[in-house]
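Reminder to self: tokens first, then the designed residues, so the page reads top to bottom the way the pipeline ran.
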């Protein structure tokens, strides 16, 4: 998925319209559904990116897939995207919308990588470590190669408290 300037602009316009119509949360759920569906369906992604398939066919597929599952505002937005022949940007627009929504709602995504699944107390300790007034959405990943400890990534910041990092630091200190 490429984050395009045009995709960001469409997403910003949609978020402004959704706020104006008091449908921000509903449209967020729609964009999450649309983005993940396109990301997970190679066939749908290929169809939307194909220059051979006509715009009306792409729109009919989109309405068949998402029709009754999304709000009227999102349906009209899909129609606008289709008439402007921007279907290939739809995944990018959807995920840009999700990111803008999270900024709007002051939600920070923390990606936590650990060697084993964390329990609730450990998750809470990591949240407390981050010291932020934002709502934290934790995405947990398991990677046994870090041996123990954890790595937390928030935006462009990283806290590496893994055992493999400590071993690497010791190895550098001894050389």
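Designed residues (175 positions):
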């Amino acid at each position: 998925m490429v984050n395009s300037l045009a995709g960001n602009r469409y997403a910003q316009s949609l978020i402004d319209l959704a706020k104006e119509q008091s449908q921000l949360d509903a449209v967020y759920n729609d964009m999450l559904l649309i983005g993940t569906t396109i990301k997970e369906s190679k066939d749908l992604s290929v169809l939307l990116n194909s220059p051979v398939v006509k715009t009306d066919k792409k729109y009919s597929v989109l309405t068949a897939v998402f029709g009754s599952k999304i709000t009227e505002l999102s349906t009209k937005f899909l129609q606008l995207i289709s008439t402007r022949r921007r279907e290939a940007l739809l995944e990018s627009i959807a995920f840009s919308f999700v990111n803008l929504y999270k900024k709007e709602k002051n939600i920070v995504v923390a990606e936590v990588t650990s060697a084993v699944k964390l329990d609730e107390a450990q998750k809470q300790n990591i949240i407390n470590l981050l010291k932020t007034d934002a709502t934290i959405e934790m995405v947990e990943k398991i990677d046994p190669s870090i041996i123990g400890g954890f790595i937390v990534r928030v935006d462009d910041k990283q806290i590496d408290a893994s055992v493999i990092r400590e071993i690497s630091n010791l190895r550098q200190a001894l050389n």
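The beta strands are 107-114, 135-142, 149-154, 157-162.
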